[in-house]
User: What shape does this take?
Amino acid sequence: MTVAGLDVGSLTIKTLILEDEKIKSFTIIPTGADVNKLIRDCLEMTLKKSGDNFKNLSSIVATGYGRINVPFADKSITEITCHALGANWLNPETRTVIDIGGQDSKVISIDKNGRVVDFIMNDKCAAGTGRFLEVMAQALGVKTEELGNESLKSKKKITISSMCTVFAESEVISLVAEGCAKEDIIRGLHKAISNRICSMACRLRLENIITLTGGVAKNTGMVQALKKRLKAKVFVPEEPQIVGALGAAIAARKIVYSE
Amino acid sequence: MPDNFLNDDFKSALIKKIAKNSNTYNIIKAGSKLYFRKSPESFKIWLDFLFYQLKEACKKRKPVVWTNIYTPSELFYALDLFPIYPEVISGVLASIGTANYLIETSESKFYTTDLCSFYRVAAGLVLKDWFPKPDLIISSSQLCDGSTKFFRNMSKYYNCEYYLINTPYYDDLNSQKYLAAQLEEIAYKIGKVNGQHLSNEKINYFFNLSNQTREYIIKLNEFRKNVPSPLSGWDAMAYILYMFFSSLGAKKGLRFYHTLYQETEEKVNRKIGVLKEEKHRILWLHQVRPYYKNEIIQNLKENKAVISFEEVSYVYWQALDPQRPWESLAQKMTSNFGVGPIERRIKTVYNLVREYKIDGVIHFSQRGCRQSCGGAYIIKDFLQEKGIPMLILDGDGADSRNYSKGQTRTRIEAFLEMLS
Ligand code: SF4
Assistant: This one.
């Protein structure tokens, strides 16, 4: 049985094809103005990679912020449920999922079957999200994907006190003006975000293993900061950005089984 | 015609003229009767009551008193005063889309965004002079601390007398005595000014009206335990709530609840539910919900969830005793489960969960409201221990600038998926 999971996020679109127990292919592309077209393109690219075609798909589930804009999906399910399913599939020991996405971050408690027991999301501001890091990377003139490696070079501790994206940006700019090294500033930023995420996570019962998902989990510096702060067993999937799409595909499979 | 013929100042002056003219409400009332002719009778009674209140606030045949929701309305009716509830009016204004303009007005005059939006709307209303001035202000410190400062400010602004009823934290005899003395003193002072002597006859009459209304609310709440839910909590937190706070002790209040009770009885008998298929029964915590255009109820409906009950509609007080008017009113105030140690609220909430066969609880945390936000996690922990999931939904009741459609949808849907 071949199914597809689509994760329409605020910064990227992810599509994934699942055949039985195997991830056949996936694609990640940035979102843009014409989301509907981009979703189709993304799915087509993934189908092409796996050598499948649209008609062969037994079911399609959409998740993410733009999940309701996918007319051809059989169902839309929130990213909370999908990240839980995806993380459970990748590591059944997972009891907590921390997903740092483009526009929000969430902490999800799950049981051994991947069912959501409780969850918490950041409030409406961008602090502690992928977007926050993007803005800071721009202010520092560094590519977002380079933030992780840059921060690992850091030798000096710097504390970033603002968490508001606008205030933090000006704090970063003044630190640069003061001659602080970029890598130290980036490490400070990672630490500030991890503090924020952890204080949010502590409102739930944090249990091992903690699986990190979402684009920000690709940032090694961020992962290190989180590990240090969480003092817990942390699992980072090979491709953390597709966990939502994977969960959607697993949900699609469930739909077929239940029919 | 000058360019600025319809500029903001002109429009505001026009609204002021219209809003402060009592005839306006007669005209709107007639129009709305026609427009809402197919609505339930109870809704029409509410409209009638609302326009009657607004009209009387303009006409001032009786002294108009501004007050807040947990100050017992029976006191005002017995003293022949006309109560107006600015925070409730704010909810109505938010529902017709005028709140943000008033909020911006109040913010431009230094009202902080940290103040609950219901009072920022009310402050805007005052600053724009769109509402007739009060003759007197009487508010209680019960539950809402933002209101105390607001009313104090208003009394200065309008140069009118302000009585603050200080509600103690604990529900014991001392607190009741302390409160009863305050209520009696206020009644005495007002009586001296408006010449209204509070006779036993009057007390009997108004307390009786309130007690009869209370009986109907209790019976109505009993009906709401039915599956499927015969009445949506979303409506209960709108026009029904308006009556809950402001009509106890008024004849129209009794008529309203009697009618609503009959309408609900019919639905129960005919097994008509709010939803065709009811999958999740929700208990809503905190006394408000967003009143501006939003999609929360839609999100719930799509996922077959219904607000079966809301804590604010729970009748926590005993019937009033006309033989002991002040003690009795004081007791009504101190028995509010939202006041005092959080354990009291938790106990009530847990009882409601069981009685109304609740699957999940949504706690609406109003921005700027300490009463609603504080303690939410303690309740959540308790309920979770008992296996009842709870969602803490941060939001704003009157300021739509704080509402994010997508984010709210995700929270609600994820919560309902969790319940499935
Ligand atoms: S929401 Fe809270 S702060 Fe606002 S009026 Fe109600 S009790 Fe007061």
